[in-house]
Amino acid sequence: MRIVIDTSGLLSLAAGNILELATQFFDFIIPARVKQELDGISKNNDFEANLAKNILSYINDKIKIIDAYKISQQGELGCAYLANELDDVEFLITDDTKILKKLEKISKKEVNFSVLIVYTLYLSGKISKEHGWRVIERMSVKRNWKDNVIFNQAKILWEHL
Amino acid sequence: MQTEQLNLKLQKDLLNEIEIVSNVLHIPKNEWARNVLARQVKVELAEHKQFIVRQYIKGLITKNELIKILGEKEAKDIDLILKVGKRSFENAHKLSKLVK
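Output (structure tokens, whole complex):
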């Protein structure tokens, strides 16, 4: 199952320590711009840099780069253009709340947060409820308080699963 | 940047401690206090906003109350995030049937 995912979504999955498992069940696709963003982040010396290095180790093997005809300098928009062009892609994943409104406008595919992957792994029996909870806890490391709304809501919804 | 004055009376001990920190850092104590205050306000504001949004998600406060606290634009942004979050939750039910 092919899913287009942007830098913020990949960083969340890596922070949740669930990227390895997720790549066993989903074929993640990114435009080249997302790899460039990850390259840039990996040059810093902080937690996100380590996450980016980890993600880069999956690229080409488990995360494929495909470029859309319509290219954007912004990774998130590039992802939306790519998802629009690929018929077999149903979802676009982002955790970037700043650009959400714009993505909702331009994406013909449904925009979802990375927690979609965690819920799905739990509902399909690949991880336990406790494991999923720990993943969501680890994912909420964002600096922007609005981004953390994603994980606050996810925790509340998780209790109803 | 427009500024306004905030007058504070501090305990002598605290003031002495601030004096030490500002000497060590070679920063005037007013500037140091301003930076610390600005940083702490950001942290607390984010925490309070998170708390309010959690209350909203749980249905413990209304949309109007959310707008009153965060303003219309922030409340709109929150609603969009929650809409996409709910969608992600619902789509997982569909997607889980396809995962082998």
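The interface with chain B takes residues 1, 25, 91, 97, 100-101, 104, 110-113, 115-116, 119-121, 123-124, 126, 145-146, 148-150, 152-154, 156-157 of chain A (CB under 8 Å).
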